[in-house]
Write a structure and sequence with these properties.
Helix 7 (about 190-210) links the parallel strand 9 (about 185-190) and strand 10 (about 210-215). By secondary structure, the protein is an alpha/beta fold. It contains eleven helices and eleven strands. Helix 1 (about 15-25) packs across helix 11 and helix 5 (about 145-155) packs parallel to helix 6 (about 170-180). The two termini are about 20 Å apart. The strands form two sheets. A nine-stranded mixed sheet has the order 3-6-7-2-8-1-9-10-11, with helices on both faces. It has a two-stranded antiparallel ribbon with strand order 4-5.
């Protein structure tokens, strides 16, 4: 089963949920964590994996043979991402803008364009005790996160439980992370900002058709509007984690709740059992 943990904004506690859920379940089943927050991965700071391999992630970008190119400009006209331009009869390429679609090579009447790999990031894979681990890191200055996220997701083991730590927000990188998941946990906090971004995230997962539920972090702060919204929208709230300075200190030390407060193990196992129930319920409804 693939469970993605997402949120409408950063700083709500996605990684807290992913790492604690992984540690609570690792003795019961095969667990894998894929950190797809490729601009700022941080799950490794809590799980402390031993990395075993690292692979580059590349995109195919155009390479122009100046001996064949006649400067007609068909390639730049076809590129929706402005990754090519023609100046003085010569084609100039901008690899950082390229999405690797290959359209320029297809439309070139002279056959002057081939493709070469262009590095945009890396994927590192390792092991954290019983937990298989992988994360992606996009190179600084490169704007295209979804290909790196897809490269991380290709490391999914296909057995047991795979937990995906999604990027924050509701844009293309988040869609790339949540798509094809069996379930999505949306982590929020009980504040007006939290509610606003939760509504955006709910719209996204409903559009993707992925069953989902909510976890409220720092639930003892703020107000009741998030819970009222969830009741009105019939969205299950599966777990609430109150604000506690001791928990914040645990996080600051790079530790997890289930390691320092064993009572939380049962809470995260219960969270998993509720997710299993909701996934089965969704499958029965979809089957009908």
């Amino acid at each position: 089963m693939i469970i993605t943990v997402a949120s409408g904004k950063g700083g709500t506690g996605k990684t807290t949920i992913v790492t604690n859920l992984a540690l609570a379940l690792a003795r019961k089943m095969p667990v894998q964590v894929l950190d797809c927050d490729v601009e700022e991965p941080n799950a490794h700071l809590f799980l402390h994996p031993e990395f075993q391999e690292e692979e580059e992630v590349t995109l195919p970008v155009p390479e122009v043979d100046s001996n064949k190119c006649d400067g007609c400009g068909k390639c730049s006209e076809a590129c929706a991402f402005h990754a090519l331009a023609v100046a003085g009869g010569r084609v100039i390429t901008f690899p950082e803008m390229c999405h690797g679609c290959g359209g320029c090579a297809l439309v070139c009447p002279q056959g002057a364009i081939t493709e070469k790999p262009h590095r945009i990031g890396v994927v590192a894979r390792g092991q954290a005790g019983r937990i298989a681990f992988a994360h992606g890191m996009i190179d600084v200055g490169h704007p295209l996160a979804p290909p790196v996220i897809k490269a991380v997701k290709k490391r999914a083991a296909g057995e047991g439980l795979t937990l995906i730590d999604a990027p924050p927000g509701t844009s293309c990188p988040v869609v790339a992370a949540v798509k094809d998941s069996d379930f999505c946990l949306l982590v929020t906090e009980p504040t007006p900002f939290g509610l606003n971004d939760l509504k955006l995230a709910v719209g996204m997962v409903r559009e993707l058709g992925v069953p989902f539920a909510v976890v409220i972090n720092r639930s003892s702060l703020g107000d009741q509007r998030v819970e009222r919204y969830c009741r009105q929208e019939r969205i299950p709230v599966l777990l609430k984690i109150p604000f506690d300075k001791r928990y914040a200190a645990t996080y600051a030390r790079g530790k997890c709740l289930v390691e320092e407060y064993p009572d939380w193990v049962a809470a995260f196992v219960g969270l998993w059992q509720e997710i299993e129930r909701l996934v089965s319920q969704h499958a029965r409804v979809a089957g009908n």
